[in-house]
Amino acid sequence: MTPVKPRWLNAEQQRIWRSFLNGVARINERLDAELRSFGLDLGEYEILVHLSEADRHMLRMSDLAERVRQSRSRLTHTISRMESKGLVSRVACPSDRRGVNAIMTEMGYQLLVKAAPSHVDSVRRALVDRVDPADFEALGRAMEAVVRDPD
Amino acid sequence: MTPVKPRWLNAEQQRIWRSFLNGVARINERLDAELRSFGLDLGEYEILVHLSEADRHMLRMSDLAERVRQSRSRLTHTISRMESKGLVSRVACPSDRRGVNAIMTEMGYQLLVKAAPSHVDSVRRALVDRVDPADFEALGRAMEAVVRDPD
DNA sequence: GACAGGTTGTTGAACCGTAAACTAAACTGA
DNA sequence: TCAGTTTAGTTTACGGTTCAACAACCTGTC
């Protein structure tokens, strides 16, 4: 007979869970507010980061979608907007005629270069510098466990 | 002379930061997927939770907005939708004629009672049970530091 | 007691994300 | 070879969020 009763969170676990929800919201608020002054949101910023790290600043749409955890549909929309802002452009993929490569423009690269120091500083002020280093490492292990394998 | 050079994240810090972004996204995905089967999203669920904990299952709109970290405008829209689903209703506030109280209906309460065990189970499977207990506590301290005081 | 300034909550438009349907191309195997 | 399936990316419609403007009310001060 399998247990039917739900295993509630105890008071401590519940407190931590709510802190997590609050903390995540707070961090996102701060990062978004700061990036807005560059006309970017976190999603667009991450796209620029991943393109900047890629060979020839270019990635297949589906590959990029996975890296930034956006649905393909969402990425299509986001890239279209960024394209009309001149930050990226689209190139047909030579090896697979279904494929499309997103490629960062010089203007996109320059914007990233300009925004990055301020963004990193936000990440520090919102999280990294606020937290005890040992706790920060533990947070890393925790999140790696969350992302790891099944389901 | 103040330092101008940005203090970049070192490799370890960057790895942890990216794990954090990935982990948070993963957790939200899982929770939303599960709540969808009750016709709720995380925002609506949290509204029900906070109302259920309040005296007479009732809270001022602005108070509720703060607790669930939604803008007032967003809460107005969300509550309107939930009202038309029969989960909450609105009552004028006697002491302040600008005020509006959101109050949970019996139907809203019953939905919460039905959804809660499954939701708690998701929280466990997505985070609590996946993480070493000591790391989980560290995560709590980290998030409390994020939420605490200035800015 | 009136007015300046802040607060509460709503509105409507613009914007962004989601979901499903769809086109085109590439595999797969019989 | 070719029917069936899978994959890539886009399109469309819809729903939710944000933003700015607004009306109604409260609060303190002169």
What does this structure look like?
The structure is a homodimer of 151-residue chains. Helix content of chain A is 62%, strand content 9%. Chain A has 151 residues and is mostly helical. Chain A has a domain at 26-125: Orthogonal Bundle (Arc Repressor Mutant, subunit A), CATH 1.10.10. A three-stranded antiparallel beta sheet of chain A has the order 1-3-2. The mean pLDDT of chain A is 94. The interface between A and B is large, with 51 and 50 residues. Chain B binds a DNA duplex (30 and 30 nucleotides) through residues 41, 43, 60-62, 65, 70-78, 80-81, 93, 96-100.
Q: What gyration radius of chain A follows from the Cα positions, in whole Å? A: 19 Å
Main sheet: strands, sense, barrel of chain A? 3 strands, antiparallel
How many strand elements of chain A? 3
The string of secondary-structure elements of chain A, in order, is HHEHHEEHH
Q: Going across the biggest sheet of chain A, name each strand in turn.
A: 1-3-2
Determine the structural class of chain A based on helices, strands and strand pairing: mainly alpha
The percent range for helix content of chain A is: 55-70%
Number of discrete helical segments of chain A:
6
Largest interface, Cβ cutoff 8 Å: A-B, 51 and 50 residues
Question: Which residue ranges of chain A are poorly predicted, with pLDDT under 50 across at least 5 consecutive positions?
Answer: none
Proportion in β-strands of chain A: 5-15%
CATH superfamily of the domain at 26-125 in chain A: Winged helix-like DNA-binding domain superfamily/Winged helix DNA-binding domain
- The CATH topology of the domain at 26-125 in chain A corresponds to Arc Repressor Mutant, subunit A
Oligomer: homodimer
CATH architecture of the domain at 26-125 in chain A: Orthogonal Bundle
CA-CA gap between termini of chain A: 24 Å
CATH class of the domain at 26-125 in chain A: Mainly Alpha
Mean pLDDT of chain A: 94
Silhouette of chain A:
globular
